[in-house]
Every structure is written in structure tokens, then in C-alpha cells.
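Posting for a labmate who doesn't have an account.
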Amino acid sequence: MNIVTNELSRLQRDALQKHFLALNAEDRRLRFGVALSDHGVCDYVTRIDFERDAVYGVYDDDMSLACVGHLARGEGFAELGVSVLPAHRGKGLGGALLARTHMHARNWGVPTLFMHCLAENGAMMHLARKQGMRIAAERGEADAYLELPPGDAASIATELFADRVALFDYALKSQAHAARRLAAAWSGLKQD
């Protein structure tokens, strides 16, 4: 199955907030390193700088974000944080986000992709190993690094194509979702 990742903008802040608030306390702790309160989650989403960073997500059939990857640009590196809602785990969404953000960071000209997580976060450790990242663990925390080649014409064209596919996928999912809602409303009216 081909997983389509969509680059998100400030217009999706509400969807991002809903996604992060849907994570339970343990999932928030594994994602952020601490069990953020609802207020902390809202503050995090408000502070995302869409001009500097890139945020990607995969929408489910109900137009909710099933997973999110936040790629924060630093000096000489980009740091990635990934979260996947429990109902969507084990389907390759995290790997798709990592591959997409890897391409984006490469085209930014960033030489290193970096992930920081708790060493007990087995899902992230598995994802990092599967993507060939170098992992250093110490005192309950782990850092994973991936050296990135410079962007080239092929990587830029691949990213542009992925962006267009994502727009088309979003439009199709959005229309199908609207049609299901309309059908449900119509059938509810006919039963009255």
C-alpha cells in the first residue's frame, strides 16, 4: 500500500491539536519526553513555526490526522518527532513520514536528520533502525542520526511529485468523506 503524506500548514493547527490531544498520557510522554498536559499540547501546537519547520501528516478516511511528523530545522541538522495514533500503528505510517521528511530535509540542504527519544520507545527505535539511522543511547535517552546526501534534481522532482500526489489524495479523501456525511444525513432524513 502506498502511504501518501501531506505537508501541513498553519491552517491545519486545529487538526494537529486534535491529533496530539488524542494521544494518551503514555503516548505523549514517549512523543515529547514528558507527559504534556492538554494545555502543554495546545502551547506546543501554537508555537510551531511553519515558516522555518515542516510538518507532515497522513489523513485517515474520516479526515483526521492518523500520524504526524514535525521536522524542526536547526543549525546543520533537522530534528524529527513522530506520533501515530494507536488505531493506525503497525501500518507503516511512521516509516512513510520518516522517508518523506528525510527527502524534505535533504532538499533543504541539511546534512543530518536527527531524532531524540526515550530509549524505552521501542517503536521509534525500531523505525530508526529500519531506516538505517545510527543510534546512540545513554541514561534512558536515545539519539538517532542519519547523514543526508545533498539534494539534487531527482530528489527535488521526487518531492514536487509527492506534493502533487498529496494534494490529489487529500481532495479525493475530502470529497469521499463529504459524500459519506451527506449520505448519512440523507438516510437519516428518509427514516424520519
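Reply:
Got it, the C-alpha cells are right above this. The longest helix spans residues 153-191.
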